[in-house]
Input
Amino acid sequence: MFCYQCEQTAKGTGCTKMGVCGKDPETADLQDLLVHAAKGISMYAHRARQLGARDRAVDLFVLEALFTTVTNVNFDPARLDALLRKAGKVIERAKGLYEKAARDAGKPVEKLAGPATYSPAEGHEALVAQAQAAGIQQRLDALGPDVAGLEELILYGLKGMAAYADHAVILGQEDEAVFAYFHEALDFLTGDDATQVDKLVPMALKVGEVNLRVMELLDAGNTGVYGHPEPTQVRVTPIKGKAIVVSGHDLKDLEELLKQTEGKGINVYTHGEMLPCLAYPGLKKYKHLVGNYGGAWQDQAKEFDAFPGAVLMTTNCIQRPRETYKARIFTSGLVAWPGVQHVADGNFQPVIDAALAAPGFTVDAEEKYITIGFARNAVMQAAGAVIDAVKAGKIKHFFLIGGCDGAKPGRNYYTEFAQAVPEDCVILTLACGKYRFNKLEFGDIGGIPRLLDVGQCNDAYSAIQIAVALAGAFNCGVNDLPLSFVLSWYEQKAVCILLTLLHLGIQNMKLGPSLPAFVGPNVLNVLVENFNIAPITNVKDDMAAMLA
Ligand code: SF4
Ligand code: SF3
Output
């Protein structure tokens, strides 16, 4: 195996023996083969589309294949085996689609090579052997770190974007142009153009552009179905009674679970990136959705161990479950862990049964609340007051401190940075990185809270809308606003968001806790020259530079 797609990659260079995330070599290789198959499918689907032929089942499979390979989603070789066999059928379908479209149009039928020839080997062991040849090591050796790294940058952006697109589809939002782009970009990665830096860089920015549309679709899905998040005080300590905690990013799964637990005497808690759900009118209307439990994903083993109920993981980020709670943790959607029960059909009865069988909380913990729900609609409603406060000099600067959380000790930087933000400045935050500081007291400026929680990582869309609206009010560009981006990254969703920010021309972003291992030295220079992006250093110097 060789994997360097996330921030915690071994030695900052790549996991080669076992993933730091817990991904074993077999799973890692099978995931690489699934990406290879998705490229092959896309080679046909892209050509078919150019001839006016498309197939939604093919489009959706490519999304699922990519999402499956995102960090902390699927650790189960058996599930991957099944997906790879399905990929064999889908590629035949895509091939047939293309060849018919070409014949119908009177065009010669291209004979495609490379990933287009994918066909799953018979038997699991043979499949694993086939997978070993699909890794990126050969490309790294042949193309060098810059070109291979740029190819991976595009691929990881697509993986993150596939996760968001998949969530959007679940809520009824899709765009033909987005499906088309997944195929176009994956096909591009199989061609000669993908060996040239001057072709790769624009394609990476294009991922960012399309991801903006995908986040818009997901925003439309979330707000269209559940209403606009509204500022809400949410309880962050447990209440006496039976309990289920829901983690991940999938609002629809939470809604289904809430419906199925209604009147059963079970309290439902959000965890990690599900926290923002407590601010959606369509979800918070359920009285038994009582609050948030715990912190960010990397603390789950300790927290789920101590949780006296059932746990549901709806997307990333799952970690190796401890034996103490393996029987009462469940997966849904594309998440998989060997030996963990999967809810495939939307029937959460096994989760409910596990919650009822567990002791539940025996006492009410001390009450503690935080305020969330400052997505674009809520902030826009307060825009007049915010603009007045800026004009009157009461708000000097905005900091967007957001992104993923993770286990590295250096991530204390984000807590310390938030604490060091001057009293006359406002913090916007989103994604799971906020757990580094979201239970601290920040107070307010003339009634405007100093900490505004915009939502999940995909609510970067909301943050962008807020920034654009502010720029409009002050008649300037986003880069001219008193606004600094202090970002933390971990997995591939952060990659697609970063590409969106680069596509929008945002400059001077600080990124940490470490730079991606897949960004080669020359590519880093391109990013520094064009966008002045820089790694975080220390709070004092970074803060001074941003306020200068
Ligand atoms: Fe290593 Fe991250 Fe890949 Fe897991 S996802 S194998 S931790 S680089
Ligand atoms: Fe977090 Fe996994 Fe990236 Fe959604 S939940 S931001 S790490």
